C-alpha cells in the first residue's frame, strides 16, 4: 500500500459541477504522489460518482497522485482506487476492508469518542474536523488544533479538515497532523497547483 498522501483535495456537489473541474483536478494532481483527489458527492448516484472517480484516476495517473472514493468502497474497489473515506452512516471500516482489502480506509470523525470508535473498528486514518470554522459547515464552531493533538495520540494518521488554508497548515503539522484536506481553499484557488505546493510545504524538509 502506497504512503498516505499529505494533501487531500475533497470535492462536494458544487466542486463536482465546476465547468473547469478537469483543469483544476489536473493542476492539483500535478503536485504528485503526496496528493489525493477525493471523489465525493453525497447527492450523486453510484454511476455519477464512479464517473467522477474514473475521471480523477485518468488525471492522477501521470503524476502518480492518489484517488480516493468517499462513501463507496465498492466503487473504490471496482476502479482500483487507493482508498475510501467513510462518514457516519457508511459501512464500518472493518466491513469496508472486506471489499477493499488493499486500500486505505479513512473515517471522518468530529470528537475523541468518534475517533476511538473508528480506531477500534479498524480505520487506517482519521479525517478530523471541523478544525476551523468554514463555509462548508456553516454554524459549526471549529474544534481547533487541540483536537488534532489529542487524536494523534491514538496512533493513527490524522488528516485535518475544515477551514484549512496553506497558512494554517504549519500549525496543524505542529499539532501532530499527518496532513490536511481542503475543499474551498484548494479547489477555488486562482492557481490550484501553486496552492497545493503551498499546502505541502508544511511537510517539506527544512
Task: Write up what this structure looks like.
- The chain has 206 residues and is α/β, with parallel strands linked by helices.
- It has a single domain, classed as Alpha-Beta Barrel (TIM Barrel).
- Helices cover 37% and strands 17% of the residues.
- It is built from ten helices and eight strands.
- The chain has helices at residues 13-16, 21-29, 46-60, 73-78, 93-99, 112-120, 145-152, 169-174, 184-187, 192-200; strands spanning 7-10, 35-39, 66-70, 83-86, 104-109, 125-128, 158-160, 179-182.
- Strands 1-2-3-4-5-6-7-8 form an eight-stranded parallel β-barrel, surrounded by six helices.
- Strand 6 (125-128), helix 7 and strand 7 (158-160) form a beta-alpha-beta unit.
- It is globular.
- The chain starts with 6 loop residues before the first strand and ends in a 6-residue tail after the last helix.
- The relative contact order is 0.16.
- The model has no long low-confidence stretch (mean pLDDT 94).
Strand order of the largest sheet: 1-2-3-4-5-6-7-8
The main sheet comes to: 8 strands, parallel, barrel
How much of the sequence lies in strands comes to 15-25%
Head-to-tail CA distance between termini: 27 Å
Number of domains: 1
What CATH calls the topology is: TIM Barrel
Task: Summarize the SSE layout with pairings.
Blueprint: E1 7-10, H1 13-16, H2 21-29, E2 35-39, H3 46-60, E3 66-70, H4 73-78, E4 83-86, H5 93-99, E5 104-109, H6 112-120, E6 125-128, H7 145-152, E7 158-160, H8 169-174, E8 179-182, H9 184-187, H10 192-200
Parallel strand pairs: 1-2, 1-8, 2-3, 3-4, 4-5, 5-6, 6-7, 7-8
Helix pairs in contact: 2-3, 2-10
